[in-house]
Write a structure and sequence with these properties.
This protein is an alpha/beta fold. It contains 8 helices and 7 strands; from the N terminus they run H-H-H-E-E-H-E-H-E-H-E-H-E-H-E. The protein is 45% helix and 12% strand. The longest helix is centred in the N-terminal third of the chain and has 18 residues, at 36-53.
Length: 197
Amino acid sequence: MSSTRDIDNLIEMMAKLPGLGPRSARRAVLHLIRKRALLLTPLSDLMQTVAATARECLNCGNIGTEDICDICTSEKRANGELCVVEDVADLWAMERSGVFKGRYHVLGGTLSALDAIGPQELRIPRLIDRVAIEAVSEVILALNATIDGQTTAHYIADQLDGQVTLTSLAQGVPIGGELDYLDDGTITAAMRARKSL
């Protein structure tokens, strides 16, 4: 039995995280071990807490520690604007920019015929229900500028045609770009210059 088996397993697990390969994971684990009291123990405790308490918001799909997230429960955010994003990372990117003051709807992905992902596999039916229930006046389609993202945007636009004002992000979002990788200024410019579909 190897005396470093647990450490090797931790490195292997860390290497599965986005942005970390085996070498980066090894460096991170060594740093955590060296700073055990300052980093490793508190990180371990926080990870256990998050594992036990994190959940998807039943309304919008955001990640939080309550059944309904703070954005959905805030009356200040009930301004009739609903921003539709592909995943939680995109929602967090929009929040980081501070430009949007309405509520969100996380689809959980995009339509993809190749991957057999249709509207029922995403939160599109829930989106249509929310538009009717929550007195939404504008739906902002803040989907990634990919083929699947644009296909999804057109599908949603067809489903909501005539029910609400539909807009999408405009300048600033490059073709093939993803919201999570954009800087705050680019997201702000794109949100302010949104256009009708």
